Amino acid sequence: MLIVKGKQKGKTFTILAGVHGAEYAPIIATQELVKELKPNELIGTIIILPITNIGSFYNKTPYINPLDNKNINRIFPGKKGGTVSEKIVDFISSEVIPISDIFLDVHSGDASEDLLPFVCYYDNKRFPRQTEITKELCEYSGFENVVSYPYTIKDDDPAKYAFKQACQAGKIAFSFESGKLGYLQPEAVKRIKRGFYRIFKKLEMYNFNVLSGVMKFQRLDRQVYIKAPVQGIFYSKFKAGSQVIGGETIGYITDEFGVILEKIVSPKKGVILYMKGTPPTKYRSTLFCISSYKL
Ligand SMILES: [Zn+2]
Fold first, then answer.
1. Which domain holds residue 228?
2. Ligand 1 center to residue 197 CA distance, Å?
C-alpha cells in the first residue's frame, strides 16, 4: 500500500488496482500515476493499492486468487483470520474504507472479456448527497459511458464488491472499467489516468492543466446478464459496444465436435457493455451484459 501525502491537508482518496490480477490497464495506470504525482502540489492524501491481488497477478489467473481460489471482488466484507483473500478484503473493509472519503476501484474486462469502457456507481438512495456527488464525478471523469447500478442491499447484507462495500459505508465510491482481454492497451491506460486527473481536479485536490470542461458521455442503466445455458465453445460475431435488438441471435455454443448446442438470443434492445471474448465457456458463466441508454 502506498500513501501519497500532499503538502496541504484535505480529502483522502483511495485507489484500488489489480483486484483482478489479469486486468493490466488499471495496474499500469496506477504505476504511472505514482511516478507522475507531485506531493507538493497535492491537497489531501492519496492511498494506492497497486496490485491488490498479487497471487492472481504473478500467476496470471483471471478472476480468482489461486492461493485460495477466491474472487476478491465477491467476498466483501471479508473475514479476519480467514484465507489470504478474505484477510486482504477484511483489511480493506476495516482499515482502508473507514479512512477514505473517496473510494475508486479500477478494473478492466478480465483476460477472457471484451468490454466497452465505462465508469459506474450505485444509485444509493440511502445516502442521496453522496450519490449525487458520485454521479457528478463519474460524469466529469472523461469516460464515454456512465453506468448506474441499482442499490438494493440492506445495511448488514454482505456487499460482495469492493466499491459497493464503500458505498454501503456512505463513502463516495465508484469504479472505472477500461481495458480488456488480458493484454495492455495504451489507450485504456490513458483513459484511466485521464479519469484520475479529472476527478482529482474536480475535487480540488490536484491541478492538471490540460483539462477542459465536461466531455461527451452517455448514461446507461438497466443491465441484463446472459449466462451460458450449457458448457461448450462460444461463438459470436458481436463485440462490446455492438447494438443489439430483442429476439436477435447474438451468439451460439457448440460442443467439442462442432455441433450447435444452444443459440443465444438477446432479451432486449441495448448495447453490449461487456461479453465473453474467448471460446471456452462454462455452464452459468456470463456471456453478455446488455445495457440500455437511459431514458
Ligand atoms: Zn475486474
1. 221-293
2. 21
CB atoms closer than 10 angstroms to residue 202: 16
Same domain, 85 and 164: yes
CA 222 / ligand 1 centre spacing (Å):
20
Distances (CA, A) of 86 to 71, 75, 80, 245: 9, 7, 7, 41
Cα–ligand 1 centroid distance for 91 (angstroms): 19
Summarize the confidence of residues 84-110 as an average pLDDT: 98
Query: For 61-90, how does the pLDDT look when each residue is reduced to its tens digit (9 = 90+)?
Result: 999 999 999 999 999 999 999 999 999 999
Question: 183 and 103 share a domain?
Answer: yes
Pairing, β 2-5 against β 43-49: antiparallel
Q: Tell me the residues surrounding ligand 1 (ion) with CB < 5 Å.
A: 20, 23, 107
| Number of independent structural domains in the chain | 2
Centre of ligand 1 to C-alpha 235, Å, is 22
Q: Measured in angstroms, how far is the CA atom of residue 8 from the centroid of ligand 1?
A: 33
Domain containing residue 77: CATH number: 3.40.630.10
